[in-house]
Design brief:
alpha+beta, 5-stranded antiparallel sheet, globular
Amino acid sequence: MTLNSRTYLYVVLGCSLAITPSIGLRAQDATAPPAQPQSQPASGQGQEPDPLKRQRSDKEQFNAQKRLHQEIGTAYKSWLNQDVVYIITDEEARAFKQLSNDEEREAFIEQFWLRRNPNPDSPENEFREEHYRRIAYANEHFAAGKPGWKTDRGHIYISFGKPDSIESHPSGGSYQRPMDEGGGETSTFPFESWHYRYLEGIGDNIDLEFVDTCQCGDYHFTIDRGEKDALSKVPGAGLTQWEEMGMAKKADRFKGGFENLGTGPLSSSQASKEFDRIELAAKIFAPPPIKFTDLDNLLSDSSHKFLNGPFFPFDVRTDFVKVTDSTVLVPITVQLKNKDITFVTKDGVSKGFVNILIKVTTLTHKTVQSDESTVQVEEPAELLQKAQERKSVYWKALPLLPGLYRLDIAIKDVNNGDHIGTYGASLEVPTYHDEKLATSSLILADEMNVVSSRDIGEGSCVIGNTHICPRVSTNRTTPVNFKRSQQLNFWMQVYNLTINEATKSNEATVTYQITDTATNTVVFEKELDSKELGAHSDQLTVEKTLPMAGLQPGKYKVTIKINDTISKQEIAQSAPFVVE
């Protein structure tokens, strides 16, 4: 069900009618006398009652209303996942998913279109009408075993409209390459090149290429102009100008790079533009900018620019630790590879500096936490090469209220100003409900120790009275790595254990185990009574150190299970890791 301007009105009106009690509605002249009652038929001459006029039971009315609510819920999901999927921003989508009732959703949709209306004072929304026209056009012209709006051409058309010109090769075949693609003649798959003279927020003279490599009508967007070459894998066929002259080998096309174009007269100048094409792809598939920022109460005031120099990669991990009933500590760990840092050597000492900015904002773009720090890596010059094989970690714990936020991190290599990295992601801080068994994040580390009393809660990687720096993976789905010579340390807190009123103590079992995920075999397991960790507290800290030497190289998982025998609640946390 598509929630366009017409069906939206129908859904809203349908809702208001459906929840009205079942009453016979009939147009009637207000001045006409009331209708006279009709005589009832004699017994035995009864007529079948009209099923459309019979009174519905309470159960039937309830089921009808339930079906209507399900239908409307489906309509709102369709609006989010189909109608506006290409033009809604991430912040808007997250905000929409947090709405709790249809009245809020209707108000959101109204404001969504109003923010994009070129004439907000007009009762007609030209942007909305044009948007649905584009969807209809895409479905009619770009369908290929799936609706046209789901295809890449449909995506671009819905977002940016009709291109200023199209170079179409619907049958492929013989193709004379331009010089910037290497020259020479080849044969191609069906392809199209769309040209836009100008796209706001993207630039001038934008060329987009779509290739139908399956020859099934499904043209996909590509940044590799060599992908349309049907003879690229055929030895001795479809050679470029340089290859025909023996100045290059066809096999050299596939030795790396984002484009598999053959070598030609302009190859050197085109190689420098490969990153421009990647940047263009990122921009072209992002939601179009909202023009009327005075009505935009959900978007950030900041503008993100594309980087001039090489991207500075880094890894990020976030954890959650309960502080009070209304506050959660969010440790943020930033991991850098020393080899990515620019070192300057002076007087026999090599130094590298990285500035780090952390910013946490709400959905309405209010900054609630920020932190600016500098990571300094200093090594003797003769040990620099070995130091570059290691990693550096920056850790900061921020107190936040439960809720949904955006986390932005930017880093800059001080000795190389163009070497910058950025990170942005949603941050959902959990709510720890009373009387509901819960845990903190499960943290794995290769080092863990108790700090002195004066350092409790202070310093980098210190949670409570424990110093523990999390191992950080390259992404959330990748397990962290350990060497057999290291130790496996894990740390987790348990909250809201039930206290026995008679004994004033908790009664729970804590089980931790190591599982070989390849064979699903438990290789280590131990069970503890919760009283061993703290008998009279509703909160426990589970800390354990295990040697890795006894584990063979492979993939494993550590799991901690809590069974509260008083409240009959169970909870478990798991974390994967790899032994090298």
